[in-house]
Design a protein that fits this description.
Residues 1-31 form the signal peptide. It comes from Mycolicibacterium duvalii. This is SCP domain-containing protein. InterPro entries: CAP_sf (IPR035940). The protein is of the alpha+beta class. It has one domain: CAP (Pathogenesis-related Protein p14a), CATH 3.40.33.10. Helix content is 43%, strand content 15%. The chain is built from six helices and four strands, in the order ααβααβααββ. The chain has helices spanning 5-25, 34-50, 61-76, 91-97, 118-126, 129-136; strands at 58-59, 104-111, 142-150, 153-161. A four-stranded mixed β-sheet has the order 1-3-4-2, with helices on both faces. Helix 3 packs across helix 4 (91-97). Mean pLDDT is 82; it is low at 18-29.
């Protein structure tokens, strides 16, 4: 039995169509940076203990949200390289918009690679006197950390707080720059 050239072309086209639909249906990979974010908290805790801090720094979801907003902003706006957001916001603005009422500070790491290890990160911050002072400040009792990756860039932001005087709020996660509902 011979198969006509037209039938072979049609079969090949159908196979390519199936292969393309399979490739399109495969979800893209998304890094889970929870372990890196938690290691930043542990490393800051260690720096504070080396500085004889009696308090224990605690993760604050409001500060984590403020850190997430700035991380995504810096990741996608390559002209940014520090504390000021693309909309002109400061760390205090972002923390306040996330519902945190207290004095805040921030450390930012931008790594020109897909990933950064906790050791690389803490070494960057530890050897910058301004960032070390923030990490070692015993009055920073709250922290929120967020990190995100692109194929050629990793951004990590930690937001530190001296105490939240606002009551807890239950609010849905919102995109950077959106005001509270």
């Amino acid at each position: 039995m011979t198969v006509s050239k037209t039938a072979r072309i049609a079969a090949a086209a159908a196979a390519v169509g199936v292969a393309v639909s399979v490739v399109v249906a495969v979800p893209t990979a998304h890094a889970d940076n929870r372990r890196l974010n938690e290691s930043v908290v542990v490393n800051v805790y260690t720096v504070q203990k080396q500085n004889n801090c009696a308090t224990e720094i605690a993760i604050n979801p409001k500060l984590r949200l403020a850190a997430q907003w700035h991380t995504n902003d810096v990741l996608h706006n390559r002209a940014l390289n520090g504390d000021i957001g693309s909309d002109g916001s400061t760390v205090a603005d972002r923390a306040r918009n996330a519902g945190y009422q207290g004095t805040v500070a921030e450390t930012v790491a931008i790594n020109p690679a897909l990933a950064i290890s906790g050791v690389e990160l803490i070494n960057q911050w530890y050897h910058r006197p301004d960032y070390y002072a923030i990490m070692a400040d015993c009055s920073n009792i709250d922290i929120g950390v967020w990190s995100e990756n692109l194929i050629d860039r990793t951004v990590v932001v930690a937001v530190y707080g001296k105490g939240d005087f606002a009551p807890p709020v239950q609010a849905p996660i919102r995109e950077f720059g959106q005001p509270p509902a």
